[in-house]
TrEMBL record:
<dbReference type="InterPro" id="IPR043901">
    <property type="entry name" value="DUF5787"/>
</dbReference>
<protein>
    <submittedName>
        <fullName>Uncharacterized protein</fullName>
    </submittedName>
</protein>
<dbReference type="Pfam" id="PF19100">
    <property type="entry name" value="DUF5787"/>
</dbReference>
């Protein structure tokens, strides 16, 4: 069964397509970072595309490859250019200052701010201005099998996305049916929501994996995707204020920057002897040799009846990747995540990684 026919495999394929081919309607003008399963307490998106300023993304590198959580962002974004007591330098957080003090220590441990002690006071100084690296945030909800009941349930979710205005664009991605009018166009979605109809093809692997070939513009290496309806920019009344919206968007962007979309391997079990990565089109997707299909993130766990740890011999008898296949898979996907960030910092063209 094609990985694209299951929602998890479809989601990973959409992420890979966005990494290579976003935006769907023209040439890429911004650097692109793709992540998955991000959102707020009220709403989680399947795929998130960050359109970034390349220079800003390069400046973001100064703060390391790991994400800055909300507390660290509060410190880093407002750290002064000259030494100052942290309580004078930072705006009132709205919660006890002792938590800010703890965040200052964490920030110093990660070398994203400088600190010094003057008597009983801790003073801080920024290492660099935190850049305005996020241009636009795009949310994509993936629903490969968009039947009537699924469309009704999804309509309320994407309407919420439009109303909150946290994302600049909202899209629904589904599998193309080949019909003259895609059923997704008949769903009762807000007019601000766009529809992407995908037809993923395993044979698209002929174009290579992108890491060596550079940006992909067209041809068999690009997954066929038809833009059925273009959304307008989401600018609803009643959306969060500019400062609050900016803060929340940077928090989401930081999580996307740190995790990417291939972080699924961190919640699955690549140390199982049955876990593999198999090429599907332009993607490397997880595959379970025991089930002979792409597993979901939930079922690929130590509780799976087919789970078998890697034999120790795999790690000790000349395996070409130190630590065994599972460790090698983790290193490979982590390297691709870092590779795409590096590439996007240098150019607003396509990339590989996640």
């Amino acid at each position: 069964m094609s990985p694209g026919t299951a929602e998890f495999g479809f989601e990973l394929s959409v992420c890979r397509w966005a990494e290579l081919s976003w935006p769907p309607t023209g040439d890429r003008e911004h650097a692109v970072v793709v992540a998955r399963q991000l959102g707020t307490q009220q709403r989680r998106w399947d795929t998130v595309v960050l359109e970034c300023d390349p220079a800003g993304l390069a400046a973001r590198q100064r703060f390391g490859p790991r994400e800055l959580d909300s507390d660290l962002l509060h410190v880093v974004r407002h750290a002064p250019a000259e030494w100052a007591w942290y309580r004078d330098a930072l705006p009132d957080p709205g919660y006890p200052w002792r938590y800010v003090r703890a965040a200052v220590h964490r920030a110093a441990d990660r070398d994203v701010v400088e600190t010094r002690r003057q008597g009983n006071r801790i003073e801080i100084r920024r290492i660099a201005p935190y850049p305005d690296w996020l241009h636009r945030l795009v949310a994509i909800e993936n629903k490969p099998d968009l039947d009537a009941s699924a469309a009704r349930a999804l309509a309320d979710q994407v309407a919420h996305d439009v109303e909150t205005g946290l994302a600049d664009e909202v899209w629904v991605a589904t599998e193309a049916t080949g019909e003259r009018i895609e059923p997704a166009l008949l769903a009762d979605f807000p007019v601000d929501v766009g529809i992407l109809a995908f037809s993923f093809d395993e044979a698209d692997s002929a174009g290579g994996d992108g890491a060596a070939d550079g940006p992909v513009a067209a041809g068999p290496a690009r997954t066929a995707a038809s833009v059925e309806w273009l959304p307008s920019e989401v600018t609803p009344p009643g959306a969060p204020g500019d400062d609050e919206r900016r803060r929340r968007r940077f928090e989401l962007a930081e999580r996307a920057y740190g995790r990417g979309w291939r972080s699924y391997v961190e919640t699955m079990r690549p140390d199982c002897r049955h876990f593999e990565l198999r090429r599907f089109g332009r993607s490397l997707l997880p595959h379970c040799a025991a089930k002979d299909r792409s597993p979901t993130a939930a079922e690929c766990a130590g509780s799976c009846p087919a789970f078998e740890p890697e034999p120790p011999a795999w790690r000790t008898r000349g395996w070409p990747i130190e630590g065994g296949p599972g460790t090698g898979i983790q290193a490979l996907l982590r390297g691709r995540r870092e590779w795409v960030r590096e590439r996007e910092r240098e150019t607003s063209g396509g990339g590989d990684g996640g």
